Structure prediction request, 296 residues.
Amino acid sequence: MNETVRNRRVSVFGLGAMGSTLARALLRAGHDVTVWNRSAGRMAELVNEGATGAEAAEVATAASPLLVMCTIDKAATEAVLRTESVGQMLLGKTVVNLSTGSSDDARRISSYVQEKGGRYVDGGIMAYPRDIGKPETTILYSGDAQGFAEHKAVLQAMAGKAEFFGDDPGTASVVYLALYAYYFGALTAFFEGAALAERAAVNPESFRRISGIMNTMLADGLCDITRRIAEGDYSGDQATIDVHHAGQLVVRDAYVAENIGYETTKAYLSYLEKAQRAGNGQRDISIMYASVKDGS
Ligand code: NDP
Prediction:
């Protein structure tokens, strides 16, 4: 079998909301896709669309040089890979694990796959299924550089931006978890802000439109704080920690008066107060990074 044909074969394990969408994107890109799912019923639709359904995980393992795993978490993926019949077929395979899990999970599974003669690349999908298959969508990867390079073109059918973070299989998962913590923290703050605005008859859609102002301000603010952190420049020339704290107490009172949840404001106030206790009340808000980094 020539190399081009071999490289078009990919097996997808786990056909939930995300895995089935990944498989569909690979099919659309013309790849020869084999699918396996714990509950066999989930394979039928993809088989109708052109995939080959594997009756067992070892059949899907044998079918392709590239194995894309997307089960509920890395522990579930590991259990599949550690099945004796699957384990003995990992020689020469590249396993790309896109299930959520810790960096320790990723490193442990990588060692196991390597022991079996395979290559391991860990990954984190930075998208909902609706954005899979688009050139602007990102999946983060780290692990076996050769395995990644060899299959990069196939992986780009799932998300055009395939960002590789080096040969530690744990890195992609740390960055993935950190980015989602940022996204969902911001989303929670948006919900709280929208609920407050709604009390003034500004509906969530209108609030979303006006919130673009803060997205622009945030992008600019992030550049300023990362520059300040890099340079150790915490001079309070724009607004001090004390000024931010006084302003946020007014925000808190508005939430309390309206009986709206304000957990993100509580967290923000708590970090500001920690900075004040450390004697940083007259410094720039970027000094708050020190309050966050020391979890005590
Ligand atoms: P779903 O709940 O839709 O699907 C879960 C899949 O995992 C199913 O195929 C299920 O099989 C399988 N599964 C569960 N337990 C096991 C097990 N013990 N052994 C084998 N297979 C198992 O989840 P998603 O598809 O949404 O998510 C899959 C992964 O992708 C998760 O790790 C998630 O965090 C990650 N992800 C998802 C995103 C999303 O937007 N949905 C975004 C970014 C990452 P069965 O059908 O038999 O139950």
In short: Residues 14-19, 37-39, 42, 70-73, 76, 79-80, 99-100, 125, 128-129 surround NDP (CB under 6 Å). The beta strands are 9-13, 32-36, 52-53, 66-69, 94-97, 119-126, 138-143, 161-164. The first helix runs from residue 3 to 7. The two ends are 59 Å apart (CA to CA).
